[in-house]
Design brief:
The protein has helices at 69-80, 93-105, 120-134, 158-179, 205-225, 244-248, 251-255, 269-280; strands spanning 60-64, 84-89, 110-114, 139-142, 188-192, 231-237, 291-294. With 301 residues, the chain is α/β, with parallel strands linked by helices. The protein has a domain at 54-236 and 269-292: Rossmann fold, CATH 3.40.50.
Amino acid sequence: MPSTVEPPVQHQSQDPRKGHETPPFPEQKQQPPGSEAEMNPKPDHGERSYQGLGRLKGKSAIITGADSGIGRAVATAFAREGADVLISYLSEHDDAKETERWVRDAGRKAILAPGDVGQKQHCRDIVDQAVGEFGKLDILINNAAFQMTHQSLDEVSEEELEHTFRTNFFGMFFLCQAALPRMEKGGTIVNTASIEAYQPAPVLLPYASTKGAIVTFTKGLAALAAKQGVRVNAVAPGPIWTPLIPSTMPEEKVKEFGKNTPLGRAGQPVEVAPMFVFLASNESTYVTGDIFGVAGRRVLA
């Protein structure tokens, strides 16, 4: 009798140096916070490639900075894994609506929540909105970020320094304060750190400092949150092709972005999203207080 067992699907190994855009990129400059629609080449968020396996089925998530870049890739992946998503973003309405479309195309609920996460009340409102719409909150992804490049400390204004910390660190802190009491056992928080926390570029000192603070906060919060059965981890990306790059870096740096990595290219948002899925899923139940690099071989040390 012939076997009815389906043969395993064969996947070809992919050369990590290929399959994605490599520098040089066209020279381009945007005003912060930047727009995905204006980037050339377009980032890959996994819209055409990411396949979900139901690992987040029935869960609900808040993702900040979800209008584009890593946030959009994570929102798309989460939806295809079965999660409903609140899309938190500053004011990039067109980009956010595109993320919303991909979440809904996956058959999941999508909520748009524009506003400044640097404001404590807005963070509380986001959590209230998610719990009100979804009935619960299982996952919090703190991903919103701001950076600017400067050649000296004198170029950094007090206002910019405060804005950088409010967006990158205060927003994460406020959201954790608001979300943790509302999360049940099994909940997960994943923060976006950076290779800059370990290998800070002199031109990105305010940004790098916030990412170092995020690493410390993640490790400490993990011990507190464990008492109520919630896990806390962070992902530390390397150079990833997102709107943050052409909107905050000199054009000559944008043109060669990612070239100095061993793989000779920048990473794409779709290549970071699976790490967030792993940390938000039940596949990582013994993982907390850890920082995971997706940095193209740049070591977290």
